[in-house]
Amino acid sequence: MKSLTIEDELTIFTAAKQKAALLTFLKSGNKLEINLSKIEEMDTAGLQLLILIKREAARLGKSLSFAMHSKVVLEILELTNLTTAFGDQVVLSEH
Amino acid sequence: MNLDAEMRDALITFTVESLELLQDMEDCLLSLEDGEDPTERINSIFRTAHTIKGSAGLFGLNHIVSFTHVVESVLDAARDGKIAVTSELVAALLPCCDHMNLLVRNVADGQIEEDAVLTANGQFLLDGLQHFLSAKPSQDKIVTISEQPNKIESIGGGAVDSGNWHLSLRFGADSLRDGMDPLSFIRYLSTLGTIAQLTTICEGIPAAEDMNPETCYLGFEINLNSNASKEEIESVFEFVRDTSSIHILPMDSEISEFIDLIKELPEEESFLGQLLVKSGALTLRELEEALSIQDAESSDNLDSGPSKHKQPLGEILVEQQAIPEPIVNAALDKQKQIKDSKARENQSIRVDAERLDILIDLIGELVISSAGVNLRALETRETGLQEATSEMMRLVEEVRDSALQLRMVPIGTTFSRFHRVVRDVSKELNKDIELIISGGDTEVDKSVVEKIGDPLMHLVRNSMDHGIENAELRLSRGKAPRGILRLNAYHASGSIVIEVCDDGGGLNRDKILEKAIERGLIQANATLSDQEIFALIFEPGFSTAQQVSNLSGRGVGMDVVKKNVTSLRGRIEVESQMGMGTTIRIHLPLTLAIIDGFMVGVGLSTFVIPLNRILECVALPEDTRNHEYMDLRGEVLPLIRLRTLFDINAEPSQRENVVIVEYAGNKAGFIVDRLLGEFQTVIKPLSKLFIHIRGVAGSTILGNGKVALILDVASLVSFVENKRPTGTQSLNYSPN
Fold this sequence. Notes:
The complex is a heterodimer of chains A (95) and B (736). Helix content of chain A is 45%, strand content 15%.
């Protein structure tokens, strides 16, 4: 299982960079995990990226899960009612 | 039997019936507890109470009325399902039933007045009932006049009690770049209410390689539980609404509420958009948007041709998903209702007929005095003055015409009375007859409408009785078993024509002829046209009906019809085909205030003879001189010398003329000096002082300002008839 931790914020300001990173990561293997614990800021652009990467993974038949959602991410997923759609185990991150 | 005795008898009937009804009521109440569907029985109990209350009211038994009223209210609530039919209810109602029984028995025993003890008992029972009524506040309305929930108030505040909104949000692609984060809007939205349901729409995100991470692709469908008005919710999206698509719709459950709101709006706004905005179903911005779409479209359509109409606002709004269709429909209905009531208001003003008559009278005076002015103006040979007066004359005439127009009313109301008549008479005759009315909006002078009712009634009854056959005969003649009677009205060449048309057996020409000869109405060898023969049915004492019925056939009626119609200066035409039906056509002048007259001169005086009475004009034969009769193609024609009649002292002219008039089948000739020709004139009735003068129907003012008398042909002709044996005639009247 390969894992990627998104270090930076996931917002409109980093979206272009993050998109490239995420897509590259998607190519790196078949069983992937993205660690969301370090995301301290996220907006709709970020949310879109998460949706996109999840969809791409499904399209390519790869297993991709989000893990260690940060508080910010959780709040947004709850708000947009996507927690269940993403189907990831949600655990509160440590900090 | 005097009134008191009658009342006493009626009162006995009331008590007997009421006691029976109360017995039924008791039985019904008792059976309610068997667990079967009580609807029908509750209904019948309610009716019982209602009947007793109503009858008691007739006798002024107010204590019974007031007690029963409360019982009735409870039953009404039960009938509407507002109170459950429980054994408690039955238990409370049964003693009420007993109490009513007691009250009625007391009345039967002669105690009409209220009894204090009984009333106190009754009040106790009513208090018991009150408990059922007050259990549900919604029934306040039934008990008394207590306040009704006023929904209109909630519009004023702009809040809908339990707002339940569906928001459909599609954010603009540049939202993110513009620094608008859709998520923050949604967060803010949750401060207005609770987000009951939210679905993120991410289908808009393109394939990974095409996806621009800085473009917003997301949309949201949100069900919001909020008391905020549509306007308030919309304001949340103020900064993005130009680029995004924001639809805020009431949930289905709220639609009916909006419809109710729209229905209860005061009737002042008549634009669809305003109605919708007022009800809170539409925001101003949505309205403006839709209007601009409408404008844009209609300006596009200018090129494609003028025949294209603007797309209705309602359609645009529904298309734009600003508002659900049922609400638009409700608003459209409301709009129509407002328009209708406005139209009604505009359609009529009630004016006292007398005032109208005064106005018309004054206008008549105005016409006369302006004619005088005109004459004077012509004498002055001042072109400017003459132009001014001729313009004034034109205007005065227009004023006169429109004043006469004021008296015009549609004949439809007179016609529609016959629905009931036809229904009743066809039952009485056991015939199946349908009444078809057309041309009801044809207008005719009010006085004509008032006077035409009776003749029409005769004609309609006659057609139903003698015209339309019974069903068997109709079937054997190959006609539909249901007879058709038509009433029709239309304008034709300055008069109104009213038709009474049936598809019955038609008039029997030979039978009429036979009867007319038998009655001596015509000579046996007379040759008459069909029209003339049919016209004989309007002669007095004429009836061909095989059987005299209640309705007609006594030979009175048809001649009355003719008399009435003639008195309105009208005439009757009959068209008939054996086996096919009869059409009776009444021609009436549009107004009684204007007459088509024929002017004649005697000495210096001018007279007007109603044109429709005139048969012909002939020169007075030389050999007549002082005879009272002349030979008109072998017929004896009584003569009336207007000169003698009106005591006109002037030398007779060289050549005298005879105007031959007819009234009710009698002819007479008026000897006059000059024939001045036809002219249309306004009749001015004679003042009360002259009302007893016979032979004169009214007066009119000629263009030169002189008065001309309008001759009453009817009375003059009958005058001749009566005076026939005696010599000179004079009415001892001088117009000068």
